[in-house]
């Protein structure tokens, strides 16, 4: 019986150029990086959207955090794999750029990586995939910009809607009607007319105070210190027509520059020392009183006690209200708010360096006390938000949520365009990029089509987290967009597809565009890595 000889086909020269054959190690490294990064993305995927789940994070020191803010979850995760760490950095970048959409950006990056994995397994070169992704992202930003609706800062209602959308996915979503207008008012009050496109969130101070509920959160036109006034020797706790000094020197007896001990041999010398101390402190307080100052804010000192019992006694006698232990990093905010200058030496203590306010008083709140300064004369462009909460977990989450809402309003000040939420922009991007991929030639078109499909992960996840049928919802959504309804999105409250702009589910354009560009940047970087070198 004759056996047919085995025919070995030699690969032709042309097939080498078309398909890319990588060596095994590089393939394994890429595969490991993509899988590690996708694992991080899958971990936060369930917390996307208004019906997303919350994560309970238990830290090594026993602290417990409950949140569904993507940046916070990833920040607290101990990620060891270098490529997975890049996703943590990605979420931090989104937090810095836009402040919101930190979960979205990681989920999109995870979906892109999944498509890259498939394309690599088909033998497409990483550089081709990377370039196609860059082109797709540039086109996506153009599509989003075309969809956006311009908004004016005078249109307060639109700003409140976008802040409210940001808060809807948070633990404190039931308080969005209170926190959203508060965030808008806070940001608008610190916008400088000379630089209308810039908002520095450091001009908005958030003070947390345990007790009450989130409903008791308020915007204070003035300043709040989470400290009580000094009560030593019966000092005043309320001062009208206040003249406020911020001092950075100590009202206490001086110490020697070098470590040395003074030996006192008899009582007369001891009395002399005490008398000198008294005279030294009295001399300082007389200079302070001479300028008309009646409220002292004393910076915390690391060298020696900023104030002693003796100096507090004399300050109380001089009817000067004292708030001590003011943190060093708060000084800039305080001086900007009070329109005063910090005083570093008693010799420089002059009336023109003081700030003026109608009222400084100590107020009881919950189980503690705060010092409130209101009616500030020539107040700087700053504001304070006093956040309340029944327990520390709620308080911390309320602060994080408020920060996100403030960032959303800041985005609208920087780039005054709104875009629909609820998965509408992503489906529209997917549809338009899919159509555009047919115009492109060769591998590029194939890669762009894959990335277009990857963007469907956002509406799919929104539907999945809301307990709806994701396949039916996404299919219906595609159908609506194909008919030209570009603002159709998933209404998770009603469990159906509606015009999401009419439902007031809106977000700043900057959040969506930065999510796409940052995710693309991160994925391209992971894609280009073909080896990991460990240096001991």
Automatic annotation (TrEMBL):
Pfam families xrefs: Cpn60_TCP1
Main location: cytoplasm
Cellular compartment(s): Cytoplasm
GO cellular component terms, semicolon-separated: cytoplasm
GO MF term (any one): ATP-dependent protein folding chaperone
Entry keyword set: ATP-binding, Chaperone, Cytoplasm, Nucleotide-binding
CDD domains recorded: TCP1_delta
Sequence similarity: Belongs to the TCP-1 chaperonin family.
Function: Molecular chaperone; assists the folding of proteins upon ATP hydrolysis. Known to play a role, in vitro, in the folding of actin and tubulin.
Protein name, entry field: T-complex protein 1 subunit delta
Taxonomic source organism: Tripterygium wilfordii
């Amino acid at each position: 019986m004759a056996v047919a000889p085995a025919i070995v086909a030699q690969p032709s020269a042309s097939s080498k150029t078309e398909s890319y054959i990588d060596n095994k190690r590089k393939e394994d490294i890429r595969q490991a990086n993509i899988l590690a990064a996708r694992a991080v993305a899958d971990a936060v995927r369930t917390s996307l959207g208004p019906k997303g789940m919350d994560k309970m994070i238990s830290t090594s020191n026993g602290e417990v955090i409950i949140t569904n803010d993507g940046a916070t979850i990833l920040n607290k995760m101990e990620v060891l794999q270098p490529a997975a760490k890049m996703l943590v950095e990605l979420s931090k970048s989104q937090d810095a750029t836009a402040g919101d959409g930190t979960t979205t950006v990681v989920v999109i990056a995870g979906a892109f990586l999944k498509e890259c994995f498939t394309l690599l397994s088909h033998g497409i070169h990483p550089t081709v995939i990377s370039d196609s992704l860059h082109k797709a992202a540039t086109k996506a930003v153009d599509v989003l910009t075309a969809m956006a609706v311009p908004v004016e800062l005078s249109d307060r209602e639109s700003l409140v809607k976008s802040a409210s959308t940001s808060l809807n996915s948070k633990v404190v979503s039931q308080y969005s009607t209170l926190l959203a207008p508060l965030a808008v008012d806070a940001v608008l009050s610190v916008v400088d007319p000379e630089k209308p496109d810039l908002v520095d969130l450091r001009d908005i101070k958030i003070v947390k105070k345990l007790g009450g509920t989130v409903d008791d959160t308020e915007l204070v036109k003035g300043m709040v210190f989470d400290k009580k006034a000094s009560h030593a020797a019966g000092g005043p706790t309320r001062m009208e027509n206040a003249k406020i000094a911020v001092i950075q020197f100590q009202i206490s007896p001086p110490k020697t520059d070098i470590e040395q001990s003074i030996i006192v041999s008899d009582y007369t010398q001891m009395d002399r020392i005490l008398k000198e101390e008294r005279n030294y402190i009295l001399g300082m307080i007389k200079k302070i009183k001479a300028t008309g100052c009646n409220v002292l804010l004393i910076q915390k000192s690391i060298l020696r006690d900023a104030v002693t019992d003796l100096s507090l006694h004399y300050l109380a006698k001089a009817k000067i209200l004292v708030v001590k232990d003011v943190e060093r990093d708060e000084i800039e905010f305080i001086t900007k708010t009070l329109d005063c200058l910090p005083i570093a030496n008693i010799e420089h203590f002059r009336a023109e360096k003081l700030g003026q306010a109608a009222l400084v008083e100590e107020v009881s709140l919950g189980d503690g006390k705060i010092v409130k300064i209101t009616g500030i004369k020539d107040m700087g462009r700053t504001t304070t938000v006093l956040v309340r909460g029944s327990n520390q977990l709620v308080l911390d989450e309320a602060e994080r949520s408020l920060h996100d809402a403030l960032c959303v309003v800041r985005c609208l000040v920087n780039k005054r365009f709104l875009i629909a939420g609820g998965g509408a922009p992503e489906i529209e991007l997917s549809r338009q990029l899919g159509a555009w991929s047919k115009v492109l030639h060769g591998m590029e078109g194939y890669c762009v089509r894959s990335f277009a499909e990857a963007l469907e992960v956002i509406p799919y996840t929104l539907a999945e987290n809301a307990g709806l049928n994701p396949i039916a919802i996404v299919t219906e959504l595609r159908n609506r967009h194909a008919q030209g309804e570009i603002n159709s999105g998933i209404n998770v409250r009603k469990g159906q597809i509606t015009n999401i702009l009419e439902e007031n589910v809106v977000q700043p354009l900057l959040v969506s565009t930065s999510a796409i560009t940052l995710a693309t940047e991160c994925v391209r970087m992971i894609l280009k890595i073909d080896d990991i070198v460990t240096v001991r």
